[in-house]
Design brief:
- Strand 4 and strand 5 form a beta hairpin.
- This protein has one domain: Carbamate kinase (3-Layer(aba) Sandwich), CATH 3.40.1160.10.
- The protein has helices at about 10-15, 25-40, 50-60, 70-95, 125-130, 155-165, 195-200, 215-230, 245-250; strands at about 5-10, 45-50, 100-105, 110-115, 115-120, 135-140, 140-145, 150-155, 170-175, 190, 235-240, 255-260.
- It has an eight-stranded mixed beta sheet with strand order 3-6-2-1-9-11-12-10, sandwiched between helices. A four-stranded mixed beta sheet has the order 5-4-7-8.
- It is an alpha/beta fold and about 260 residues long.
- The protein is built from nine helices and twelve strands.
């Protein structure tokens, strides 16, 4: 298997996270066309997307991230799963309408967690899909958890597990900002362990409802992942900029680059 690229479409990109169940269809349609063009030369890609204004509103309503024990919380667990699947249906419909052979892989049916961390996630079917030249699609979802009963597994959490179990070389995170911004609002070109403490105070949370954390959590988690995998390159960029997804999948420099080591 050739090296794999993981591409995430953030909830802030394909939904309006301030308005419940607001799918940004035109944005998704434009991105689907870029993915279709990029697939000609990009090599294997696994696509993921956040739950945005679908799953996050329900998750906050029932406190699903913190744990699931009561009958009401389990009902909420099912509602969160349904909302996440609803958004995934819209994403899948858009991809298929663009002529992309995309196939849904529901994370909650593939994984088990403990204390919020994925312990098992079966990847054999994902590999089979890639060998068939399909586009596997995963998404932020609920997870059964040995400690909490139930919890939320963000797309980044799913990606982290995939990086450890598949030959992944790149993680591309497309959102609605041009990259990671410093205190002056300028894009930080490169974040690594040596300069992260300088930039961390400027990072802020999500502008909308997001139970899995905002930019600070995203960058911290991705930096940790990059430190564990020396050859991994991560980019955070603006998926709304025309051509940016195409460029990112084509290994062109976009947004903020995150690596586990500084350039010499």
């Amino acid at each position: 298997m050739k090296s794999i690229t993981l591409l995430k479409l953030g909830g802030s990109l394909i939904t309006d996270k301030r308005q419940e169940r607001s799918f940004q269809r035109e944005v998704m349609q434009a991105i689907a066309l870029e993915i279709k063009e990029a697939r000609i030369t990009s090599g294997p890609v696994i696509l993921g997307h956040g739950s945005g204004s679908f799953g996050h509103f329900e998750a906050r309503r029932y406190g699903t991230m913190e744990g699931v024990t009561t009958a009401e919380q389990w009902y909420g667990f099912c509602r969160v799963a349904h909302a996440a699947a609803e958004l995934n249906h819209y994403v899948m419909t858009t991809l298929l309408e663009a002529g992309i052979p995309a196939m849904r892989f529901q994370p909650s049916a593939l994984m088990l967690a403990e204390s919020g961390m994925i312990q098992t996630l079966h990847v054999e079917a994902l590999l089979a899909a890639l060998r068939a030249d399909l586009l596997p699609v995963v998404f932020g979802d609920v997870a059964f958890d040995a400690e909490r009963g139930g919890t939320i597994a963000s797309t980044e959490t799913v990606f982290t597990h995939l990086v450890s179990n598949l030959p992944v070389k790149r993680v591309l995170l497309a959102g609605d900002v041009d990259g990671v911004l410093d205190e002056n609002g300028s894009v930080i070109a490169h974040i690594h362990p040596r300069n992260y403490p300088h930039y961390a105070p400027a990072l802020k949370g999500s502008a909308g409802t997001d139970v899995t954390g905002g930019m600070l959590t995203k960058v911290s988690d991705m930096l940790t992942l990059a430190e564990l995998h020396a050859d991994l390159e991560i980019r955070i960029f603006n998926g709304r900029t025309p051509g940016s997804v195409l460029k990112a999948l084509g290994s062109q420099a976009v947004g903020t680059r995150i690596t586990g080591v500084a350039d010499e």
